[in-house]
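W.,

You were right to be curious about this one. When I first looked at the sequence I had no strong expectations either way, so I just let the prediction run and decided to look at it fresh. Below is the sequence, 142 residues in total, followed by the output.
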Amino acid sequence: MQNFTPVSALIGGSLIGSSAVLLLWLNGRIAGISGIFHGLYPYQRKDFLWRLLFLAGLIIGSQIYYLLPQIHFIPRTNYSVNLLFLAGLLVGIGTKLSGGCTSGHGVCGIARMSIRSFTATGIFFIFGLGTVFFMRHIWGIS
């Protein structure tokens, strides 16, 4: 393993878990990112602000992490815009079809011992392995 970083993984996992617990405790909602995003449309005043703030926090938090001086990584820039657009579209369709994403099913659903979430997360994992195999060994993109 080249990028084994247990400390940052522990901190990141703790922050994700804490945010999921706080959202459920304070707002009564599951922290499924695709569900939060899909809930922005159609516009509903009572749900719009917290959804927008939660998503803005994800974006701002990742930008803060990126700007920290001790973080040394090089963002990947060699993917075509069309490939990224297709990937995003497929993820969006998949999350709508499965009734959630890895954050909703994998973090929150498994913690609630949901059989549906165990199944969905297993399927996500299998297809993720297949996609990596296809992209690296068949298509030649690493």
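Here's what jumped out at me. Residues 42 and 96 are 15 Å apart (CA to CA). And, maybe more interesting for your project: Residues 115-138 form the longest helix (24 residues).

Coffee later to discuss?

I.
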